[in-house]
Amino acid sequence: QAERRYLARTTETWAPLRRQIERELNQLLPDTVRTHPVTQSGYEYFSEIPKGGQYPVFYRRSVAAEAAATVLLDVNQLAGDSEYYALGGFALSPDGKFIAYTEDRSANESFTLLLRPISGSQEVGELAAATAADVAWHPDGRSLLYLDAARAVLYRYSPGMTAVELYREQDPSYSLSLESTGHDAFVLDRKSTRLNSSHQIIS
Fold first, then answer.
1. Which residues are CB-neighbours of 87 under 8 A, at least 6 positions away?
2. pTM, 2 dp
C-alpha cells in the first residue's frame, strides 16, 4: 500500500497525460477480448474481457446442446470496488457443480480460499485464509488441496471438517506448488529450488 501511494504521489503530474493515453489505447481495442475455447468432458471453456471491464469473465458451454454459456466466475463482480484485487487460481469440481478459487485483496500475495456453486444459490463460503494462490480438487472429488501462504504446508479440506495437514516441507530452500495433471485421478505436489525439482503424485 505504501509503495502504491508513493507511486501515485510521484506521478501525479503525469495523471492527465496517462488518462489520455489510456483512452486512446482503449479506442484501439475490440469491444471484447475472447480466448480460444478449450474442450473438456463435453464442455467448452473460454474467457473474455467485456467492453469496459478490467478483468476476465470465465464461461462454460455445453458442446452437445445449443445452450447459452454459463458464467463460472465474473472477476469484475468479484473485484467490485476494491482498491486492489487479484484472482489467484480456480478449479472446477469433478462433478461440475462447484468452483473453488483463491483471491487476494491486500496486494501482499496472501490469498483466501473460497467455494461457490455454479448454479442456484450464489452464496460464497470462505474455507481458509492466508493461503497461496494454488488450489486443486483431490482425486476423491469431494475435498480440496491448498497450500499455506509460505508454500511450506499442504492441506486437505473436506466439507464439514477442519483442514488436515498432509505434508510439511522442512527445507526452507524448497517451496511447494500444486498442478493438475489433466487426468481426473492425479494431482501433482511439486517441490522446487533453483537447482532441482521433484514431483509427487497424489491419488
1. 55, 73, 75, 78, 101, 102, 103
2. 0.78
